[in-house]
Design a protein that fits this description.
nine-stranded mixed β-sheet, 18 helices, 9 strands, elongated
Length: 494
């Protein structure tokens, strides 16, 4: 019953698709049935942890979920202390330890997440974010239990992996036990969640080593049963921690990992912008003094013939990473016939639609409108203007973007204008290992680019640099963020 309860809850969380038609009424019924099954499991076996674990995910009230979770961990802990030492290769004992680790992790993380949700709903984002506060004594005790439990689980995994990889000499039989991919991947997700938890916490000098430790474990460099998606996300966040406090137990160097990171995960970008699409303009313009579209438009007006007049000069335009349409609003007077906006976040696209400055809006990555096919997102005709405001901060390697843009621009007059964060040649965050790449991934999960990198791409793809300006583009924690704004014109390749 407990297992069925958990399966119903998982089903209720699935997104609605053409093949998975789950509306709010169905979700509510699934959650209610899951809650009933969890209650019934507790009635039948009140001394077992399974029913309480199921109730900890199905109870509609947060306090009830945490109470059930606490009971589940107490029963699991009692079972551990009363039972004899299990074989390290036993799949049952490994599953139990991993489940116990996950429950402890939830007890540490979810109360903070609930406080953050309440405070953000009531007061909006504040500097005293619950996710940034240092651990209290109780939380430190829980975390020590988590560390101990995770170490035990990984020792079991390593032992089992070695046993399966090296059967006894002269024997061809299959080992009597098999390492469960589901169990290992759940362990991987626990590590990733803890990595994200400590990454946000202040002060970084204290908590970054813990974050790095958990991301490193979630990467699972040599384990074949890993969830590759989780591994890739952990690798990305690990790369943002270069230069912070080092954990001597880790062998995967974060600065070395950053060499393999060329762009932010789409899942992260979608989640980030979808979560605050409704208040994006207020946050960016009012609180962060965001002014990139205005400055970039002024830069274009100063170098493009007829751009500063009241008459539109571009027949067709594409706004890459259009967001809520702030950039489209700034450049709309330049466009005569057609303007398309593309963004990864459906919620941001809906906000842009309300502005009414686009003829077409597309949910997708920035290059999807340039695809030479018959897909709905594709716009196969050339453009006189392609712009990208505050987009390349999420893309390190711009080679593919330049390749797509140069094919899509009108020859000899097409304009490509964009912004990115500026990376000085002597920036101390570069280090010896990243100095030849032309860009770096900062700890804030945004890329910055060197001027020389942009200039080399312009030369390679036959662009003339009409303007390049280094200036503040927004605020971050009260300080100016220096950006690089660029206006390029396509040259004839003949």
């Amino acid at each position: 019953m407990a297992t069925l309860s958990c399966l119903l809850m998982e089903r209720s969380k699935q997104k609605t698709t053409a093949k998975n038609n789950i509306d709010d009424n169905v979700r509510q019924k699934l959650c209610q049935e899951a809650w009933n099954l969890a209650q019934r499991a507790i009635e039948l076996q009140p001394t077992k942890s399974f029913g309480y674990a199921a109730l900890s995910t199905s109870a509609p009230i947060h306090a009830d979920r945490m109470k059930a979770l606490q009971k589940a961990t107490e029963l699991s802990s009692a079972k551990n202390s009363s039972s004899s030492s299990p074989s390290p290769s036993s799949p049952a004992s490994l599953g139990h330890v991993v489940a116990f680790s996950g429950a402890l992790g939830r007890l540490l993380v979810e109360p903070r997440e609930e406080l953050e949700r309440i405070e953000n709903t009531t007061y909006g984002a504040t500097k005293n974010n619950p996710m940034r506060r240092d651990l209290n004594k109780h939380e430190k005790d829980v975390y020590q239990q988590i560390r101990s439990s995770l170490d035990q689980a990984w020792n079991m995994v390593k032992t089992k992996t070695n046993d399966d990889a090296s059967p006894p000499p002269g024997e061809n039989k299959v080992p009597p036990t098999m390492l469960s991919g589901t169990t290992v991947q759940y362990l991987q997700k626990i590590e990733y969640r803890l990595g994200m938890f400590f990454r946000k916490m202040k002060p970084p000098s204290v908590h970054v080593p813990s974050s790095r430790r958990h991301f490193h474990a979630a990467v699972m460099e040599t384990l074949p049963l890993k969830n590759q998606n989780v591994s890739d996300k952990a690798r990305f966040w690990l790369a943002t921690l270069h230069g912070e406090g080092q954990d001597e137990n880790n062998t995967l160097d974060a600065s070395a990992v950053s060499l393999n990171i060329d762009r932010c995960p789409e899942e992260y970008i979608i989640s980030l912008y979808s979560s605050f699409a409704s208040r994006f303009d207020e946050l960016l313009v009012t609180k962060l003094s965001y002014q990139t579209p205005t400055i970039l438009r002024q830069l274009v007006d100063g170098v493009v013939k007829n751009a500063s007049s009241s008459q539109p000069w571009a027949m067709r335009a594409a706004d890459l990473g259009c967001g809520t349409g702030l950039s489209g609003l700034a450049f709309q007077p330049c466009v005569k016939d057609f303007m398309v906006g593309v963004d990864l976040s459906p919620e941001m696209i809906e906000r842009a639609r309300e502005r009414g400055c686009y003829d077409k809006l597309v949910v997708g990555d920035v290059e999807c409108v340039f695809k030479d096919d018959s897909s709905e997102s594709s716009c196969q005709d050339t453009f006189d203007l392609i712009l990208a405001c505050d987009v390349f901060v999420y893309i390190g390697d711009l080679q593919s973007i330049f390749h797509s843009v140069t094919k899509a621009l009108t020859p000899r007059k097409g304009i490509f204008c964009f912004s990115t964060e500026y990376l000085a040649n002597d920036d101390p965050r570069l280090g010896n290992k990243t100095s030849d790449r032309g860009y770096i991934l900062h700890s804030c999960a945004r890329f910055a680019h060197k001027q020389s990198y942009v200039e080399s791409l312009a030369k390679e793809f036959h662009f003339n640099i009409l303007a390049l300006k280094i200036c503040p583009i927004r605020k971050n924690e009260g300080k100016d963020v220096i950006g690089m704004l660029v206006v390029l014109q396509k040259l004839s390749t003949k």
